[in-house]
Amino acid sequence: QVQLMESGGGSVQAGGSLRLSCVASGYRYSRYCMAWFRQAPGKERERVATLSNNGRTSSEDSVKGRFTISEDNAKNTLYLEMNSLKPEDTAMYYCAAESYCGGGYAYWGQGAQVTVSS
C-alpha cells in the first residue's frame, strides 16, 4: 500500500525558509512521478513543482527561483526547499505520487501547513 507522509511545515516570517519532506513507502519510489501541490483557504489546489520519473524537475512560475524540488532515493524521501517565502505562499502543502507524469495523481499525503506572516 502506497503511503506518503509530509513533515516540516510551520510558521515563518516573510523572507524566511522552510524545507518540507515527504517520506514514501509501499512502492518502488524511484520509478514514480512525484509532485508537490498546495491549497490555500478558498482557493483551488495548484501544482507547485514536479520531479519526473527520469529526474527532470519543473515548477510553477510563482515559485521559480525560490522553491526547489529534490529527492533522496536512498531515503525514499521527496523534499521541497522553500526560500524567500511570501505571505501568499501560505497554504496546506501536499506531496503526491503517480506512475507517470502528465495525468492525475492517485496517491497523496495528509498535508503540511505552511504559514507565512508579513
Determine the oligomeric state from the structure. Answer: single chain
Report the structural category: mainly beta
Shape: globular
Cα gyration radius (Å): 13 Å
Brief summary of the model shown:
This protein has no helices and 11 strands. With about 120 residues, it is mainly beta.
Q: Your description of this structure?
A:
The protein has 118 residues and is mostly beta strands. 0% of the residues lie in helices and 52% in strands. It is built from no helices and 11 strands. The radius of gyration is 13 Å and the shape is globular. The protein starts with a strand and ends with a strand. 31% of the residues are buried.
Note the main attributes of this structure.
four-stranded antiparallel beta sheet, 118 residues, mainly beta, 0% helix, seven-stranded mixed beta sheet
Topology at a glance:
Elements: E1 3-7, E2 10-13, E3 18-25, E4 33-39, E5 46-51, E6 57-59, E7 67-72, E8 77-82, E9 91-98, E10 107-108, E11 112-117
Parallel strand pairs: 2-11
Antiparallel strand pairs: 1-3, 3-8, 4-5, 4-9, 5-6, 7-8, 9-10, 9-11
